[in-house]
Design goal:
Elements lengths: L2 E8 L4 H9 L4 E6 L6 E6 L3 H12 L5 E8 L7
Antiparallel strand pairs: 1-3, 1-4, 2-3
């Protein structure tokens, strides 16, 4: 299953609202508020790579509260 992690920088003071908006998007599996260079890490999964790219491009990155994002598509995973 194609997976990506999207690192998000947001407008100030929108944390709860942005988390709520992100988690409603089909394909978004997790949203984490973090400290550091980025404000959020968003885990996105889909049935195909094309669908994954569409979710990120047309749904996640289009939210007005997002200033910038960096997407990392997973090449390989291993879980314990």
């Amino acid at each position: 299953m194609p997976t990506a992690f999207v690192l998000v920088n947001s407008d100030p003071e929108v944390e709860e609202e942005l988390i709520s908006d992100l988690i409603k998007i089909d394909g978004v599996k997790e949203v984490h508020s973090v400290y550091g260079i980025y404000d959020f890490i968003v885990k996105v999964e889909s049935e195909s790579l094309e669908e994954l790219k569409a979710i990120i491009t047309w749904k996640v990155r289009r939210l007005r509260k997002i200033r910038a994002s960096t997407t990392m598509i997973v090449a390989q995973s291993k879980t314990k």
